[in-house]
Write a structure and sequence with these properties.
Blueprint lengths: L2 E8 L17 E8 L5 E8 L9 H11 L4 E4 L4 H9 L3 E4 L6 H17 L1
Parallel strand pairs: 1-4, 4-5
Antiparallel strand pairs: 1-2, 2-3
Length: about 120
């Protein structure tokens, strides 16, 4: 079984919340661990984003939170240049899109995308 942890920016968090339209200023991240082969959701954690109220550097702080949560994939709106560089530094794959979709639905789409990439 291959597992992946995906970070989604969310307002309140959880599978029924929608993917937030900002990375650095999102209130929470919903971290979903899933089986890439079966699509089964194995674990869900909600993590507060300290960058939400930061004066500056919110995107970089958000990237740190994602990495600290063990996520290897970020799915959500396009990150700004500093956040993108930080995500790359932490070896977190960026899959842009899914804003406004329920997290539960976005998980399925991200897993489909990862499978397509794996098949080459």
């Amino acid at each position: 079984m291959a597992k992946v942890k995906i970070a989604f920016p969310t307002g309140k968090g959880g599978l029924d919340d929608v993917v937030y339209d900002r990375l650095g200023r999102t209130p929470t991240f919903t971290i979903v661990e899933a089986d890439t082969e079966t699509g089964e959701i194995l674990d869900v954690k909600i993590v507060k984003n300290p960058g939400y109220e930061a004066g500056s550097g919110a995107g970089v702080k958000a990237a740190q939170v994602i990495a600290d949560a063990g996520a290897t994939v970020y799915a959500g709106p396009n990150p700004g240049p500093n956040a993108y560089a930080a995500l790359q530094y932490f070896k977190v794959k960026v899959i842009p899109g899914y804003v406004g979709l329920p997290v539960r639905e976005a998980v399925k789409k991200v897993l489909e995308e990862l499978r397509k990439e794996e098949q080459g």
